[in-house]
Each structure stands twice: as C-alpha cells, then as structure tokens.
Specification:
9-stranded mixed sheet, globular, about 40% helix, Arginase, Chain A, 17 helices
C-alpha cells in the first residue's frame, strides 16, 4: 500500500488524497489503548497537531483527569511534545482523552451515548484544560471560569478534577458536545446536523467503545452476587454523596465499624459525618446508615457461640474493593435487547455514511474489564466489523486486542 501523504498539504487536498487509501481500524481491549494510534497518527503526520475532532461513542465519557502530577503531562501542555510511553503508563480507561486536549491536539469532542447515560447532560460545553500551578495536576474548568455548568458540577468536580481558571497554566480551550440516542435508538435531525457540522470538512477520528450499544457495570455484578441487589442499591444511594464524604465511608469500612454494637456505630464521629452529608443532600441519613449497619453487621459478626469458623465472610472480602464498588456503583448499567442494538446500529450506520472518512477508527471491545456484556460481545463486534467494511469499503483491520479476550477467531500462529 502506498504511503500516505504528509500534512504539508492543505486540509481539503489531504482529504481528497486519503479517500484513495484504506481506513485503518484499530481493535483494542481496554479503551485507553485508543490513545496510542492517535499519537502515532500525529507523529506520522496523518493527523495535524491542532484542531482535531473526535467522534466518541461510549457509555462513559472517559474525560477524567490523571490524578497525579507528571513531568510528561506538564511537557505536553507546555510544548506539545507527547511522551507516549510515559503518559500511557499514567492513563486508564477513564483518563485518556484529556491528555490529548492539554497537548493541543484535540479541540472538539462529541461524546455520543445511550439514553441511559446520565453523567453529563446533553448540550455543548466550552471548556479549558490546563496544569494547576498549585499542585501541578491536569485540571478542567469552564471556559468562562464560573465552573457552574452541569459538566463541571456533576463530572469533574465530583472527582476533584476541576480547577480554577486563574490557577491554570498552559491552558487549551476545547468544546465538548454531548449527544444522546433516544430510547428508540435514533438521533434527531438537529443532533445529526451538529455531528456533521463538527466532522465534515475537518480532520477527525472515529472512536467506538462497544459498550455504547449495551453496557454492564462489573462492580454491580460482583457485589450483588455476593451481598444481593438490595445491598448494592443501598451502597449506591449512600455513595451518591461523592467526595469528600466517601473518605469517611472508606474509613468506616477499613475500621469495620459495623461490627460494633448499633448504638456505638451510630454514635461514631465518622458515621455522624456521613449522616450529616446525606441529610444535606436530601437523603434520610440516619435511616440509611442504620440500614448499612444492619446489613453488614449480620454478614461479618461471628456466630453466637463465639467459635470462629475455618472460613468467614471477612476472609473472602477486600474492604478496599468494597469501597471502590461504592464509588463506582453509579456507573451505567443497561443490558440492551437485540432490537435496541439493531436500532442503534442502523442509526450509527446511516450517520457514518453521511460523514467524511475519518483519518482512522478505534474499536474498544471492553471485554477484559467486563463493561461489554460478554454474552453479547460477539454479535456487537461482528456488527461493527461488518459496518466498517460497508461504510468505508476499503479498510485495514489492525488487531491490538488479546487473543484470550478476542471476539474473533485468531489464526493458530497468533495464539
């Protein structure tokens, strides 16, 4: 295959040239693996260093900020030089997009999600990423400095990843559009027009997490299997208080305070602090924490005869994992029926047919972390495989997923 032309061509000429070549389609397991083809395309000059657009299909925004100071992030923000290995080591499935923003590569992201996703309200948000001069971390804020948008108050602020505009260095302005499919699996004319307006006549990348079509919360599965769905829903309601209230909850679990008598538990300063926050948020704090004690006291208290069994519930539980489950209990969980998957697939197909060709495509199977329901993985990935060939006709499928978790059959020499 001939080499692609460099970005020394004007954008419109580059686009016409690229129509002659295969569209690379990268298949990865974990979604942060999609960052690497993007950086490779920048370095090979298939993508420009500025003003790239991303059409991002996912049940999760993946727009969180890396929660540590890093010389690699500071260098990317300050100079645009991107240490791929260094930053890749810092990212996870929720934090791989904003490093591309702060480096100046991405200036517009369209997060497309299902009707069940409530993390950020539908709409357009003018935002800024930069390095906080106080702690050296990557932060996000509203472009007008108010930090009053739904995105800031309900997404970045909850993770303490929000910053004050006056404290940010090496700032990059960018736009986030949130577009949601309807319950019927369709897009409105206005939604379609917005996506076309952003992507057509621009250099853009298509990114699809396959859990967009059907989404599992693996933390819910594991916890509910052990403690029951009612207990999971109780944890979910209590943990909705977010940070910093969940710090007290983590200490309650670490100290196993629920093993104390109920009056001692309810009178503890940590429990009282959680009750106060729940009350402030409009929840019945005292009742919820009393229910919390009742449930976990019965699971973890030794038998009345005082004899310790060989195996106890406490031996099987990691309390850090329990805390993480609580923090992630609000993640989307929606197992789509086959008719819903087909409807969303048809809408996606028609939309992609109406857009210019992307520079490349990334497909994240999300099987290793169980966000894609395993029972539906083969049919969803197969649908997208066929869709890429139907829409772009000439593609180069580049598999970076692991055979152990693959939804396709590998040749024997690849196993």
């Amino acid at each position: 295959m001939p080499k692609r032309k460099s970005n020394s061509y004007p954008a419109n000429k580059r686009r016409k040239i690229k129509q002659q070549f295969e569209v690379p389609v990268y298949v990865v397991d974990l979604h942060d693996g999609a960052m690497l083809p993007f950086i490779d395309a920048i370095k090979s000059r298939d993508l420009p260093k500025h003003n790239v657009k991303m059409l991002h299909y996912d049940s999760h925004p993946d727009l969180g900020n890396i929660d540590q100071k890093s010389v690699h992030l500071i260098e990317a923000a300050k100079t645009g030089k991107f240490n791929k290995k260094g930053i890749d080591a810092l990212t996870d499935i929720a934090t791989w997009i904003t490093p591309l923003v702060v480096a100046g590569y991405l200036d517009e992201v369209i997060w497309v999600c299902g009707h069940w996703c409530t993390q950020i309200k539908e709409g357009s948000y003018e935002l800024i990423c930069g390095i906080d001069k106080k702690d050296g971390k990557l932060k996000t804020c509203d472009a007008d400095g108010t930090n009053t948008s739904h995105a800031m108050e309900n997404y970045w602020e909850g993770d303490e990843a929000d910053g004050e505009l006056e404290n940010l260095l090496y700032t990059k302005k960018w736009t986030l559009h949130v577009v949601k499919y309807s319950k019927q699996g369709t897009l409105s004319e206005e939604q379609t027009a917005l996506i076309r307006d952003v992507c057509n006549d621009e250099e853009w990348v298509l990114d699809i997490d396959e859990d967009f079509f059907s989404c599992n919360n693996p933390y819910k599965d594991s916890f509910a299997a052990c403690f029951g769905l009612r207990t999971f829903n109780l944890m979910k309601k209590i943990y909705e208080i977010g940070s910093p209230g969940d710090i007290a909850l983590k200490r309650i679990l670490k100290k196993k305070l629920f093993m104390k008598q109920k009056s001692e538990f309810m009178g503890h300063a940590l429990v009282k602090s959680v009750v106060d926050v729940l009350n402030e948020e409009g929840f019945p704090g005292k009742k919820l924490m009393a229910d919390f004690w009742t449930v976990f006291h019965q699971y973890f208290t030794l038998p009345a005869d005082g004899k310790k069994p060989k195996i106890t519930v406490k031996d099987l539980v990691d309390f850090d994992d329990m805390h993480e489950t609580g923090q992630l209990s609000t993640l989307p969980h929606h197992i789509s029926g086959i008719d819903e998957i087909a409807a969303m697939g048809n809408t996606t197909y028609q939309l992609l047919k109406s857009l210019d060709r992307p520079v490349h495509v990334t497909l994240a199977t999300s099987r290793t972390d169980r966000y894609l329901p395993d029972s539906q993985a083969k049919l969803i990935h197969g649908m997208l495989d066929d869709m890429m060939e139907d829409v772009y006709e000439d593609i180069e499928m580049i598999r970076r997923d692991k055979p152990k978790y693959s939804v396709c059959v590998y040749d024997s020499d690849e196993n």
